[in-house]
Amino acid sequence: MNLETNLKELKGVGDRLYSILQNNELKTIGDLLLYFPRKYDDYSDVLAISSMRPGLVTIIVTFSNIKTRRVRRGLHITEAVASDASGKVKVVWFNQPYRAKAIDLNVSYYLSGNFDLSNQQLQITNPSIEKAELALHSQTARILPTYRESKELTSVLIRKLIAQIEQLNLSIPETLPEWVVKKAKVISYKEAIFSIHLPKSTENLTKAKERLGFEELFIIMCAAQANKIEATKVPSPKIPFLQKSAIDFVSNLPFTLTDAQRKTVWQIYLDMERDEPMNRLVEGDVGSGKTVVAAMASLMVAEGGLQVALLAPTELLAQQHALTFEKVFSHSKFGKRIGLLTGSLKAGEKKALKEKIESNKISIVIGTHALLQESVNWHNLGLVIIDEQHRFGVQQRQKLHLKSGYMPHVLCLTATPIPRSLALTVYGELSLSILDQAPSNRAGVITEIVSPNSVKQMYEKMIEQLRIGHQAYIVCPLIEESISLQVDSAQKVYTELSKGVLKDWKVGLLHGKLKAEEKDAIMRKFISKEIDVLVSTTVIEVGVDVANATFMVILSADRFGLAQLHQLRGRVGRYIHKGYCCLVLSDSKAPSKRMRAIAQTTDGFELAELDLEIRGPGAIYGLRQHGGLDLRIASLADTKLILRARNVVSQFMEKEENLLKYKQIAQQVRRASKLTYLN
Asked: Which of its termini does the chain have fewer beta carbons within 10 Å around, N or C?
């Protein structure tokens, strides 16, 4: 038998059981071994009955007084008394009438289960039992795994099959090169794969998770490096640094660049002077000045006679970028060579703009991601700037290459602070710049946690801001009311406030179900002060920039991730007016550690690390939508393991032929990176 052996070959697996396994995509021994547990219960400490305390217990006992009764249709109760030298305890099984006949009296059993109070009596309910004389125990007296279960596929069944497979002493090949295993100081794949299912001790389980987690990180990082190698295979245009142009541009800005901005701009200029494509991610906390950095990158490209495409996630944000670029380039010869290409343009306007792009009369083109799909014939595209799309994939690069014959430089911008451990894994192919300073002209935000009992006073503070001419946001977690989630919906809040406490003010409603043109119309009204208070879902999370908005209310704030709350909070206090952010809790209980943290700090990177630790990577942003992070064992909070993996990957990838030599690794890397050349 081997990993490809059909599960039908195992003892006890007939047609019906095999059908159940198949329905769960478990066909071979290899499939079952990769069906990892989701949690563990520790029953390894064998106690005397007299020393038991409520909780998970394991005891060695004999049984007496076994009886089964039918309470009502569909419910059987089997009761017994379990005894050892120190005492007795009642044991109850529900709907397991076979227990009465299966248990041998005067035979010792290991019993593992939950000792707890039921019907005002301490008892052990639905325990697992195995004869003490057995050589192998898969259900008791050890650390027991729990799996994703269905009605017919139980953890007990899976544990029995795994225990049977372990006894076969299969030949399981090592999945990583021996020198990688040795260098990483991890256990063998075979030992890890059985220890993850049937750990002999806590230390044994830790080592298994470390080995399998290391391998996951190793593959993801190899994929990132493979992407990097692929990107450098195609030449990019060299963009020379022109010092005088940079000095003139900066001298005409209405503010002083931060040191972080200067450092990042210099890193970009050095990247673009090389003949291989830049692939850089600029992480900037809310309001750190990423757009100006993008403008300075664009300046040097335009000075070199090449073109820039700035891609924004929405038409509204594209329009905002265009306004900002027109302002900062107003003293430059390129101020009149900026174009905005969006879906709302009339056909004639679109055609005229595309002709200007093709003839190189436009140097900087701003639009949505449709810019790369539309029939835009670039004269000579030198730089692509991606705003708030964290991953610019291999396939998109290949499209650009086919269109232009060379690879433009790529600059990605994100206002979502990404923890360093996450950046090392998911974005390993990107060079990283961090804008960790706020410009001196930012007034900042005061954050307050609000109990539902204090909402009236909160709205009074909001109205004070409205009276002096400022505007406000109210953010709700849902568009419409939900029976399952007891939270305020945007529609309900809009209706109640418009007729109630805000009846004297102009209130608008914005959410994701509106058509793009309806959203844009509402945002334009808010920007032009035709709307005083905007009730919204999280569609305002990224990029919306209204200087006059100073007050932010987030309802059911404890249902949001810290990174998302920080993004929303960043919509106020962006300029000279002080911002106020009220985090309204779902109930009047004491605020959680997360809520206290966001009230106490405005450091987005610190909050992102905390969110990663508490809620996992998905809380920071939908990682599966941004390149497919599928970690089943590894934790992105384990920075030590990530750094170990990174060091080994660097050595492994020094010679690209390693990927071609190790075909299994190459296949996994190909799936993770979407590369086609690793055949």
From this structure: C
